[in-house]
């Protein structure tokens, strides 16, 4: 057995680029729900591309990950709902429909967001990233999701 004998079964790592502190306008590429092979943790993942930013290069592709249910399930679900309100709001604005209210987004809508259809691909949202101190005193980057003033201006014709 050589050093590379397991190469045919190896899965390429995807690495990760995360949001830097700052104000960003991003387009959603894909949303997925995944389980880590390493520790069996489950993740809600939003893959994006930067369209405009005051701290990150346009075109780079940061991801946002939330562990589900995570150490604090109510916070995890609340963070996901915040993202979904912005994403479904962008989707509604682009399609000329009413944006959702928090009570409109439940389990079915969340599961639909990461379905094979990839229904939210292409929606544009803002991501205001800021640091918050953990109990241990470390920085943790939080994201406040929203809608750009002119969502339609970002939609590819």
Sequence-ordered SSE layout with sheet pairings:
Layout: E1 22-35, E2 42-53, E3 63-68, H1 73-95, H2 107-113, E4 124-133, E5 139-146
Antiparallel strand pairs: 1-2, 1-4, 2-3, 4-5
How does this structure look, described?
The chain has helices at about 75-95, 105-115; strands at about 20-35, 40-55, 65-70, 125-135, 140-145. It has about 160 residues and is α+β, with helices and mostly antiparallel strands. The protein has one domain (about 25-150). A 5-stranded antiparallel β-sheet has the order 3-2-1-4-5. The longest helix has 23 residues, at about 75-95. About 20% of the residues are buried.
Rg from Cα: 17 Å
* Overall pLDDT confidence: 88
Assembly category: single chain
* Strand order within the widest beta sheet: 3-2-1-4-5
End-to-end separation in angstroms reads 54 Å
* Strand residue content: 25-35%
Tally of separate domains: 1
Return the string of H and E elements: EEEHHEE
Separate helix tally: 2
Helical amount: 10-25%
Anisotropy-based shape: globular
How many β-strands, per DSSP?
Answer: 5
Low confidence ranges: none
Class from helix and strand fractions: alpha+beta
- Largest beta-sheet characterization: 5 strands, antiparallel
In short:
The protein has 157 residues and is α+β, with helices and mostly antiparallel strands.
Question: What characteristics describe this protein?
Answer:
single chain; 157 residues; alpha+beta; five-stranded antiparallel β-sheet; 19% helix; 32% strand; globular
């Amino acid at each position: 057995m050589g050093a590379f004998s397991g190469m045919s079964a190896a899965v390429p790592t995807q690495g990760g680029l995360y949001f830097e502190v700052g104000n960003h306008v991003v387009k959603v590429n894909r949303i997925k729900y995944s389980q880590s092979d390493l520790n069996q943790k489950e993740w809600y993942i939003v893959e994006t591309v930067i369209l405009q930013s005051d701290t990150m290069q346009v075109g780079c592709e940061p991801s946002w990950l939330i562990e589900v249910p995570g150490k604090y399930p109510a916070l995890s679900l609340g963070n996901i709902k915040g993202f979904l309100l912005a994403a479904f709001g962008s989707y509604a604005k682009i399609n000329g429909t009413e944006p959702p209210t928090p009570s409109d987004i439940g389990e079915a809508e969340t599961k639909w967001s990461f379905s094979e259809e990839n229904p939210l691909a292409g929606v544009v949202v803002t991501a205001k990233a800021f640091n918050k101190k953990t109990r241990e005193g470390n920085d943790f980057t939080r994201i406040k999701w929203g809608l750009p003033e002119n969502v339609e201006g970002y939609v590819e014709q």
